[in-house]
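The material for today's practical consists of a large collection of protein records. Backbone structure tokens are a discrete shorthand for how the chain folds in space. An example says more than a description, so a record of this kind follows:
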Amino acid sequence: MEEMSQADRAALLLFALGEERASAVLKHMDAREVQLIGYSMARLRDISPDMINVVLGEVIPAVKHQTSLGVDSDGYIRSVLIQSLGEDKATSVIERIFLSTESKGIEQLKYLDPKSISDLVRLEHPQIGAIILSMLGNDKAAEVMQRIPEHIRSDLMLRIATMQGVQPGALRELDAIMEKQLSGSVAVKATTIGGIEAAASILNFMDGSASNLVLKKISESDAELATKIQDKMFVFEDLTSLSGSDMQTLLREVPTELLLLALRGSSDELKEKIYANMSKRAAEILRDDLEASPPAKLSDVEKSQKEILSIAKQLMDSGIIIFSVEEGDELI
């Protein structure tokens, strides 16, 4: 047991809790944490009672007799994630979990720093580079894109946005590349990655000027596609569409200093929505501090807004908050 990671221990605990309780626990985690623990759950085999007892002894002795030994781990993981995230969101996470367990080369991507990945993407065929970027978390993919030469970015984003899934042969080719360069190996299975939403999510995490330039280049090649990507992008002003309770949930996660900087230059509508979902005293203090604050650099304001959007997106991915949209519109 000493060799087991914290993620492995958490996975054992979730097996012990049963599907319903495990789903309830996962709802309070962000997508990255769910993927990490799901990966550990998928790897665990030959779970013994002693392993369960040790973990329960460390965490919650009260659930010692509520184990889920003997379950089909793949089916269990799928059921738990679907219950906690919903079928659409869970599908992407599930595919990445099982792809990671069966493809050691590709799995090693997450351990590389952004500079190393950007060097890899820059030297590979653009389609391979697009697949690599699509398999990273959106924030890390954005860091990688920032390090890639500008004349390559738009082509990569265009390929990501138009990707309709990846066939096993393409993933085997990618895994072979990882095996050669990162000592990875083994075969892989098909998964659904890329697409307009993936491109929009990566652009959301890039600097405003950089993402705008990429969109402009894509528009020159395919104006309709650029519009579709932009429609899926999540901007700071979109927070006005949050319900009152969801806005309150978000504000509890955002430091006051970060909010104060992010609200510089934002619309009166968004400011009033935020004030309305704070206590009267807190709203008065924020309003006064905002009026008394000295000018700030646009880059600093944009950075703070992106940090808040990142928090909001984690809450969205976990199903904790949703967006209220007009009839006929899609949820983002």
